[in-house]
Write a structure and sequence with these properties.
The protein has about 325 residues and is an alpha/beta fold. The protein is built from 13 helices and 14 strands. It has a domain of about 90 residues: Helicase, Ruva Protein, domain 3 (Orthogonal Bundle), CATH 1.10.8.240.
Amino acid sequence: MRIVALAGGIGGARFLRGLKNVIGPEDEITVIGNTGDDIHLFGLKVCPDLDTLMYTLGGGINEEQGWGRADETWSIKGEMKAYGVGPEWFGLGDRDFATHIVRTQMLAAGYPLSAVTEALCERWQPGVRLLPMSDDRVETHVRITTGDTSGSAAGSGTRAVHFQEYWVKLHAAVDAEAIIPVGADTAKPAPGVLEAIAAADVILLPPSNPVVSIGTVLAVPGIRQAVSSSPAPVVGLSPIVGGSPVRGMADKVLAAVGVETTAEAVALHYGSELLDGWLVDTADAASVAAVEAAGIACRAVPLLMSDAEATAAMARAALELAEQVRA
Ligand code: FO1
């Protein structure tokens, strides 16, 4: 079975680790990773979601944080601070820095991001084929308005900030007015992306952020069309449980696109043109009927990735629902 998953960082990576545990030896997983969170810092290209996927599936992730390397040290960060060079709000550890240096060197030598990602994965052996959604630069910006004129870190007036500044520096504490995937409209899917979708037996949307992770992948021209026109069943898992994001601040970016923070509203946001099946948590069992009424097969199962077995059970439930909607 050829499984394709569109994924963001932590939630997507943890789900895929569970999926790897339930598939057979002849099954293959291709992951199309979001690159809208990518940021250039200290002259280096940082790809948070690709790295989170690669480290998590390759056994190098910091489990507590969900991002960055295990057994990390912070000498470079300290040295940069001593030079007064920021930003200080984004935590790049020494081991992680090496990944960004290799990536930036290879990009400067002319390799596309897809080839660089493949090369990095030769070390990490994530057990999936990891593709960036595009080799072209796409950068998610968030429009915010702050009324503060005191010269605080948030600044004042209306402006667009990089997604990482919104997420990490501002902790999404300001309302997001608009989410702009800058460059997405002219980006091309990376080599292999459309081919993998066309050849898929199952397409999964893990419990990643529907706006800034999966939404950004779908914003690359050709990808949404390829997924929605695929004969393979498309099954998603709700990242919203009981009216709150399982982790992160998805509610802030859902509000920016006019979507309520409920499992049902996220299903309808994706829509029946895209989704064939949708899993909600048992806490949201009351929304099953409304999702089914919208033409999307829906089941309520536990959706908290509390341990490896719970995550594997979610992956099994997604594959079972895919089989049911295929029939
Ligand atoms: N998230 C944080 O909350 N704080 C950080 O300092 C931080 C640094 C960081 C460095 C490398 C990396 O790959 C990810 C990092 N993240 C950090 C996670 C990241 O900001 C987001 O969670 C994702 O982009 C959202 O998918």
